[in-house]
């Protein structure tokens, strides 16, 4: 009898989660700086990207409440999500509506005082997001992000950077040093 080959390894299984990270270090406000994804909607609407902020709250020492604030059609929207702990530290599960809508999330690399790189996988599709404590991060951090993007098979043609203008920083209280 022939054996079935093992299923191919998920791209996210190859991503190491940041070690030694306390979830409480992730609390607070973050700015979405960049994103790499093969999402066709993002590609078609990349010229309409708006400054986006996220507030992270640690709920029970294990899960995260994520509030995303963004402008859409000249209105401010808040999207709330709950990241549940997964099988290992730094790994989370985001459950959506329906059976096939779970998203695996990994905290890939972080310096909680300045940046965090998160990986998201839904089905076989993977995306990578770069968040900063301010809307501008150093070139070194951008280089790390771009290396991480390439390591999961994405490229610069599917990497998008978010604007740092639009009144959000005043409305949401960003202070520049």
From TrEMBL:
Claim: Signal is one of the keywords in the record: yes
PANTHER family: COMPLEMENT COMPONENT C8 GAMMA CHAIN
Domain Lipocalin/cytosolic fatty-acid binding: 27-161
Family according to the record: Belongs to the calycin superfamily. Lipocalin family.
One term under GO cellular component: blood microparticle
Protein name: CO8G protein
Any Pfam family matching the protein: Lipocalin
Matching PROSITE patterns: LIPOCALIN (PS00213)
Alphabetical list of Gene3D superfamilies matching this protein: 2.40.128.20
Keyword terms of this UniProt record: Disulfide bond, Secreted, Signal
GO biological process, one term: complement activation
GO-annotated molecular function: complement binding
InterPro entries xref list: A1-microglobln, C8G, Calycin, Lipocalin_CS, Lipocln_cytosolic_FA-bd_dom
Keyword Signal part of the UniProt annotation: yes
